[in-house]
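User: What would this chain look like folded?
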Amino acid sequence: MTTALDILNDAPRAEALAMIAPLAERSPWVAEAALGARPFESDEALARALVEAILSSSRETRIALFRAHPALAGREAAEGSMTAESTCEQGRLGLLSLSAADAARLGRLNAAYAARFGHPFILALHRIPDLGALFDIFERRLRATPLEEHASTLAEIASVIRSRAAEAFGAAAANKTATPSNTPREQAQ
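Assistant: Here's the prediction, encoded as structure tokens.
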């Protein structure tokens, strides 16, 4: 059976870029930098190549990557302009349908964080069990130093990339029937 990873490894460059670009939020340069590591032996190898591309980039480039992320339940969520991946991740925790009090609290935290660090708060939502945990982590990270927060943000992005790569190219993706309607190549078009 042909897997999503096989399709990625054999795809022409433009198709392969389209397949992996969504793994790094609105930052196609990450996919471009990682693509030279093909063929990927596993979803973990793909994620590792993407993360290495980020870590080997300049601080300014990493900050631009941070700024490409949407704020939690922020303007992009209200406009409906988030990526499908971010919409799904934020929706799972109810961030797209917050109570007025929770929305106001999150709005204050988002504003304080952006003022302190210059980019949106980034958290790997796939591992957060509930809204209470999100608020606890958000408030704790607001007290971090800029260097600590830069490192934490990179770790969160790496976790998101690993999760997205596993979903798209790992065992779960391999167990799907490879038909034209659900292969990553077809979805990327």
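The chain has one domain: 4-188. If you want, I can go into more detail on any region.
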